[in-house]
Structure formats: structure tokens, C-alpha cells
Amino acid sequence: MIVDANKKLVCDFYEAIERRDYEAVAEFCHEDFNFYVHVDRPMPGAAGLVGSEKKNFDMYDHFTFKIHELLAEEDRIAAYMIFEGVQVRSVEGTPVKGGLVRFSLMMLLKVKDGKIIEKRAHFDNKDIDSQLVAA
């Protein structure tokens, strides 16, 4: 069933991110891939996604990025996820607090030709920033 295959694709995609296997992450992306961190400003191409994810996740020696709910219908998959990691490096000059960072995300993905063609990320930046700022 195509819905089950799409759900497996999304699970494998996020497992590759968690492993930091960015080559595999790019392979999961359709040639016309768009990443939406902001509603109306897509980041085209797998390279934009990989660059963004690598920059964010390089702050952590180890992190988990687990899917807690996965819903799919036809070519669309919604994933409710929780990220957890201990910050060990600075981002954009912000001092390292060094504590656990934990936040939820809602992802909406679209699949075409067996690859992810669109990823829309929804999360609370203020929540993340408040956990990254050194006391």
C-alpha cells in the first residue's frame, strides 16, 4: 500500500537525520524538493535542507529526533516529533548553556515518485531559544 510505503520513507528519512547521514538525507529528497521553515519562503533543493539541518544539529554531540505520531493520507504525511539533545557547541555566537534541549515539532511532508518533494516544519523558536541562552 502506498500510504505505508510513504510512512516508511518518512521514518527512514528522520532516522538518517538522527544518524547525521546527510548523504542519505539528500537521497530521500525529490529533485524538485522544497523545504519550508517559513510559510512563504521555501528553501529549494536538498542542499538547502542538509545545510540547515547540519548547522542546527552540529550543536549537539548526540540527539534524538523521535516520531511520536505519524499520520498519512495519500501523498501527505504528518509527523509529531520530539527533539532531545544536550547542547555542546555555540550557534551564531550564543554562549553554550550545556543543558538538555527538548522541544516538539510538527512536520508536514509530501511524497512524489517515492521521494520527499516537500517538507514543512512547524516549531516554537522562542521555546528553543530560551533553552539555548546561557543563564
Task: Write up this protein.
- With about 140 residues, the chain is α+β, with helices and mostly antiparallel strands.
- The protein is about 35% helix and about 45% strand.
- It has 4 helices and 6 strands.
- The protein has helices at about 1-20, 20-25, 45-55, 125-130; strands spanning about 30-40, 40-45, 60-75, 75-85, 100-110, 115-125.
- It has a 6-stranded mixed beta sheet.
- Strand 1 (about 30-40) and strand 2 (about 40-45) form a beta hairpin.
- It is globular.
- The N and C termini lie far apart (about 50 Å).
- The mean pLDDT is about 90.
Strands of the widest sheet, in order across it, are: 2-1-6-5-4-3
Mean pLDDT across every amino acid position: 90
What is the tally of beta strands?
Answer: 6
C-alpha termini separation: 50 Å
- Sketch the topology as an H/E string, one letter per element: HHEEHEEEEH
Keywords:
33% helix; 4 helices; 6-stranded mixed beta sheet; alpha+beta; 135 residues
Please outline the helices and strands.
Blueprint: H1 2-19, H2 22-27, E1 29-38, E2 41-44, H3 46-57, E3 60-73, E4 76-87, E5 100-112, E6 115-123, H4 125-132
Parallel strand pairs: 1-6
Antiparallel strand pairs: 1-2, 3-4, 4-5, 5-6
